[in-house]
Each structure stands twice: as C-alpha cells, then as structure tokens.
Amino acid sequence: MNLRTTLGAGLSALALVLSMAGSAQAAQGNFTYKYVDGYGAERQVTLHDPHSGKCINLHAVGDDKEQPGYGPRNDTDTAVTVYLGANCQGPEWRLKAHGQPAKDTLEVRSVRFDAPQVS
User: How many CB atoms lie within 10 A of CB 45?
Assistant: First the structure.
C-alpha cells in the first residue's frame, strides 16, 4: 500500500509541474504584423500563443537586410516589446496586453513577450 500511495503522489506532482510549465512558457492569444513580400503583396503573419521571455526574430522580416514588418497588434495576455532591429536590438516600443493595433508606421523585426503573471 505504501508503494501505491507514493506512486499516486508522484504522478500528481508530475501532472502539476507539467501543467505549470506550459502556462509559464507562452503568452496566450495572438500577435499579428504585416509585411510586403518579394512580389509587392501585403501579407499578415499571426503568432499564436508565442513563447515568452525570449527574443523572437519575426518570419520574413527578422533580418536587418530585409524590409521590416509593420502595424503590429498584441492581442495576447502579456505585454510585448517590439524592436526595429533583429535579435531584439535597436529602438524599441512596448505594446500593452490586448491593446489596440499599432499604426502602420511602427516597424518591427523582432519581439520579446513578458513572462505571464503567475496567480
């Protein structure tokens, strides 16, 4: 009976750790931005539940040799810092959680989402 109790407690602890690890690693919601592709067409990219706490170079615009993306919108549950340069370098701006879309004049190449608040 002691083995069964120990095994049950161990599995419960593992389930708790796994559930907490998933929520601490990602902002919940969508982050979108626009860019112009090589054919001159405007495209929109959506990051769904993006990773938090690390720099993300954005698809198609995350290199300083490319034209930057623009018009970011943060519809996640955490604030985000957007950077004009790749690798979270250069001028930066903060966008609130569930905020209004930024103007198309705000250019972006990389982002870093705040770690979600643990309650």
Answer: 15
In the β-sheet with 29-36, what is the strand arrangement from edge to edge? 42-48, 29-36, 69-76, 107-108
Convert the pLDDT of each residue in 11-60 to its tens digit.
444 444 444 444 458 999 999 999 999 999 999 999 999 999 999 999 99
CATH class, range 27-113: mainly beta
8 Å CB contact between 43 and 32:
no
36: its two tokens: 């112009």
Of 53, 105, 111, 49, the closest CA to residue 75 belongs to 49
**Which pair of tokens denotes residue 91?**
């001028």
Q: Where are the domains of the chain?
A: 27-113
